[in-house]
Amino acid sequence: MNHPADPAYQIEVQVDEPYAGQVDPEDLTAAVQATLQHEGVATASLTLVITGDEVIQELNRTFRGVDAPTDVLSFPSQGEEDGLALPPELASELAHYLGDIVIALPYAARQAAHYQTPLGSELRLLTVHGTLHLLGYDHGTPEEKAAMWAAQRAVLALLGEKDLGARYDEMESGG
Q1: Confidence label for 91 from pLDDT (cuts 50, 70 and 90)
Q2: Would you call 25 exposed, middle or buried from its count of C-beta atoms within 10 A (0-12, 13-18, 19+)?
Q3: What is the CATH number of domain 9-167?
């Protein structure tokens, strides 16, 4: 599913140097766009970072109290600007900023190998998963999980990853 960059979406993909040759930023941008379009989000911006296990382990320890690497973490921005007196153009920009997604490429590569999935597919899955978290989805209760997994399956099917969405139904993610 290739769409030209949508000006209503500002998606920044940052790939740490050691992983630059293993990641297709345009593919991950398309996965974010497909998720936003599926969820009816007209205007949004976010940052997607592809990094190593050490970085994500530090983030996981700092923000979740879990001293271990994980596949994907999402950091929603909603509400962070509440109470601040901001210039109108900055306030408008922040209103559409969903937050940050961080994916550990080595962790994702091990997960892809375990499930016999291409790395690109695994990265698309984690990108969709992280974007859904930024949009307010969670999987803490059976009802939340069912709703999130259904949205995830639908977006992955749009991206040609129907089988991957079904596999993820059975997988427990730290995201």
Answers
A1: low
A2: middle
A3: 3.40.390.30
